[in-house]
From TrEMBL:
Record GO cellular component, one term: signal recognition particle
Enzyme Commission identifier(s): 3.6.5.4
Name of this protein: Signal recognition particle protein
Protein's organism: Selenihalanaerobacter shriftii
GO MF entries: 7S RNA binding; GTP binding; GTPase activity
Function: Involved in targeting and insertion of nascent membrane proteins into the cytoplasmic membrane. Binds to the hydrophobic signal sequence of the ribosome-nascent chain (RNC) as it emerges from the ribosomes. The SRP-RNC complex is then targeted to the cytoplasmic membrane where it interacts with the SRP receptor FtsY.
Record note on domains: Composed of three domains: the N-terminal N domain, which is responsible for interactions with the ribosome, the central G domain, which binds GTP, and the C-terminal M domain, which binds the RNA and the signal sequence of the RNC.
Domain SRP54-type proteins GTP-binding residues, every copy: 101-296
Binding site for GTP: 108-115, 190-194, 248-251
Similarity remark: Belongs to the GTP-binding SRP family. SRP54 subfamily.
Domain AAA+ ATPase: 100-296
């Protein structure tokens, strides 16, 4: 599970700190050195770690904290607040159009979990009373269309496809029109991924964006790839502009480096996390709950 190693280390560090009663500046600095190492071992971006520790140090080393009745607890509280802030502060929700259909475009590299996430998101929205339409605009990966159709059947939600011989831009546009004329209020577009970011992929995604003007572009990244996921997010955001991130495979990510770096590096919030292969395994991302998971 995510943050396993980090949680164990930080809880050890803070147990020591809390056990001390009175704290000196040096005690706090020593603890923060341990925090810094633990974050780097969890594969958090170096620059992010540096700023994070600096912010905490500024708040924690001062008379108010050190001379308080429970200085250890105060420091932990500060770390908790800063961790929450690092992951975006408050939960960032999907933007739903006031005038339906809401158009959501999922983008990302191949294997990140895009198609699976289309299904999960459709289920999540359907559970909330929405009427999703899944649109198969990945015409390159041979199994992608079929995979989406199978998901649609399982969810009993319609899938719009025009096969793999049409231009994905036309498919996306026709999908939105189909939703409009069939009373579907959320369109979820599955787009093509590649093994690496390339200009052709970005060009196609930009054209789809221009054609359907999505309310949400969600970038799906695999948390298990750590800082690569962060780089991918930066690149996609620079080239295309994304509204939020879905961080998949959190169930297999023991370190959590991507979860702790993406928001700070890209400025874009993590909106959902994928926590398994099943259609129910999608959760809204709550920065405060994640911080509490780390600090116990
Ligand atoms: P795409 O190429 O981005 O469309 O990726 P897929 O949706 O086909 O997913 C690739 C693989 O990752 C599949 O085997 C999925 O079952 C798996 N997968 C997707 N999301 C998650 C997740 O949150 N946790 C786990 N454990 N596996 C996932």
């Amino acid at each position: 599970m995510i943050f396993e190693g980090l949680a164990e280390k930080l809880q050890g560090t803070f147990d020591k700190l809390r056990g001390k009663g009175k704290l000196s500046e040096e005690d706090v600095k020593a603890a923060l050195r341990e925090v810094k190492l633990a974050l780097l071992e969890a594969d958090v971006n170096f620059r992010v770690v540096k700023n994070f520790i600096k912010d905490i140090e500024e708040r924690a080393i001062g008379q108010e904290v050190l001379e308080s009745l429970t200085p250890g607890q105060q420091v932990v509280k500060i770390v908790n607040e800063e961790l929450t802030e690092l992951m975006g502060g408050t939960q960032s929700k999907l933007t739903l159009a006031s005038n339906p259909p809401t158009v959501i475009m999922l983008v990302g590299l191949q294997g990140a979990g895009k198609t699976t996430t289309v299904g999960k998101l459709a289920k999540n929205l359907h559970n909330k009373g929405r009427r999703p339409l899944l649109v198969a605009a990945d015409i390159y990966r041979p199994a992608a269309i079929k995979q989406l159709q199978v998901l649609g059947e399982r969810l009993e939600q319609p899938v719009f496809t025009m096969g793999d011989k049409q231009d994905p831009v036309d498919i996306a546009k026709a999908g939105v029109s189909h939703a409009e004329s069939n009373g579907r209020d959320v369109v979820i577009i599955d787009t093509a991924g590649r093994l690496h970011i390339d200009e052709k992929l970005m060009g196609e995604l930009k054209n789809i964006k221009k054609a359907v003007k999505p309310h949400e572009i969600l970038l799906v990244v695999d948390s298990m790839t750590g800082q690569d996921a962060v780089n991918v997010a930066e690149n996609f955001d620079d080239a295309l502009g994304v509204d939020g991130v879905v961080l998949t495979k959190l169930d297999g990510d023991a370190r959590g480096g991507a979860a702790l770096s993406i928001r700070e590096v890209t400025g874009k919030p993590i909106k959902f996390s994928g926590i398994g292969e099943k259609l129910d395994d999608l959760e809204p991302f709550h920065p405060d709950r994640m911080a509490s998971r780390i600090l116990g």
